[in-house]
Amino acid sequence: MITVLSGGTGTPKLLQGLKEIVDPTDLAIIVNTLENDYFSGVYVSADIDTVLYTMADMINEEFWYGVNGDTFITHERLEEIGCPELLRIGDIDRATKIQKTQLMVKYGLAKAVEIQAEKMGITSKIIPMSEEHSDIKIITDIGELEFHDFLIKHQAQPDVLDIKFSKVSPAVGVVESIINSDAVIIGPSNPITSILPILSLDGVKDALKDTYVVAVSPIIGSDSVSGPASKFMKALDIEVSSVGVASLYETFLDNIVIDDKDYDKKQQLNQIVNKVTITNTIMNSLDAKKNLAQIIIDSIP
């Protein structure tokens, strides 16, 4: 079994490739829940839903959020009647969120996600990192902001001074999945707000030390491929590079996959991690996603 640690955008692209070359029943995906919250009366778990839609071949690949071809009748009507939403939630996507909200009352988040995955025909195991509510604050030059206010309302423009998030307990199956895996892949999601929260869970780092771990750097050169990862790394005084990413995972990392453009960092990386795999990491086509996935799988002993 292969376990993948995932946030949104970067790792789901890799998942598209992985599920083409690996039996999906052999994949477990532990997904960040740090940014989960209620909006317009429904529970929004953006990264989980992105993974669900990706594995069900429904994802909107323009935004890596929501359902491909969705309509926005409810969202637009809410705005017309003076009840605008911070998040642009599509109609099909909203149905998923309504169902999840209702299922959580009876079963909790992990079971709700399991039920939804089954309904979508997904055979991989999708595991929320925690059942508990997380609180994240982005400390900026214009004040303390909620994560979605920073990302959407302010378009990630303010300077970031610090990031604070609450400690939560791992959901059942998180640590067990890592322990029972042949390898763990840390996807190219935001290292600070997508991967670090998973690593902060009790027992996760210890489990990773006993498992083969390969990470894909979401940083090429001195900037992130997408999203505000570089701003967040700078705020925590972490070098914005594949070297900085490797340093975050140093205590358990066996192999880091970096882009061809970062070849000059190989020697420096070898002081942190035993193996450095250099290839194209830009996933702008299904073939590119499959090629990267195959290189990762081939690198696992």
Secondary-structure map with pairings?
Elements: E1 2-6, H1 10-21, E2 27-31, E3 37-39, E4 42-44, H2 46-55, H3 73-80, H4 91-107, H5 109-119, E5 125-128, E6 136-140, E7 143-146, H6 147-153, E8 160-165, H7 174-179, E9 183-186, H8 191-199, H9 204-209, E10 212-216, E11 219-220, E12 223-224, H10 229-235, H11 242-248, E13 255-259, H12 266-269, E14 275-279, H13 286-299
Parallel strand pairs: 1-2, 1-9, 2-5, 9-10, 10-13, 13-14
Antiparallel strand pairs: 3-4, 6-7, 6-8, 11-12
Helix pairs in contact: 1-2, 1-13, 4-5
How would you characterize this protein structure?
- The protein has 301 residues and is of the alpha/beta class.
- The protein contains 13 helices and 14 strands.
- The strands form four sheets. It has a seven-stranded parallel beta sheet with strand order 5-2-1-9-10-13-14, sandwiched between helices. Strands 7-6-8 form a three-stranded antiparallel beta sheet.
- Helix 4 packs across helix 5.
